[in-house]
Amino acid sequence: MTTSSTPSRAGFTLIDIMVTIAVFSIIMAGALPALINISESMKLGQGQREVASALQSARLIAVTSNRPIRVRFNCPAAGQYRITELIGSQSTPVADDTATDRCSDTKWKFPANDSNPTTRPNHDGPLLYLPARVTFGAASTLEFWPDGSGHKQVGVENPLIQVPVAGTAITVVKGTIVKTITVNGLGKIQFVQ
User: CA-CA distances (angstroms) from residue 156 to 39, 79, 174?
Assistant: First the structure.
């Protein structure tokens, strides 16, 4: 008895593969905006954490050095910020402290030109940058005093006014997504979700 065997036709046809690729492409096209939003949110969260860390560092420097320390936002350009030591006193800062170039890393170097504690400033930090395409929304200059309290600049007043108990907001923005950091008058720094 002879049996004839026909070759097996297992596998996929070209049409099967093309339909599968088309369905997969449609699903990926629908998921792409969600993936982009996740990526933007992650960069924004990174910026929020970096700014909060700089604020905490500024407060710590103010308390340990017994000197008022400022955090200047959008200084010297949008998306940049810097920790600077107040030159002079809270009520009468030196004229150079209010100069528009106070965030200049060439004039006000990091690290300081000398380590003499009698010359100022000794506690300026490096120029810091937000992640790409992340900007500051609401952000006024903040100052931490040696007792750890937080103060903010509203106009040209000296000394800066103490932040109210409810706090003041520093916002970072990317596209339509906004993340906030609050600082209250006691110097407490919190993330707002």
Answer: 39, 22, 29
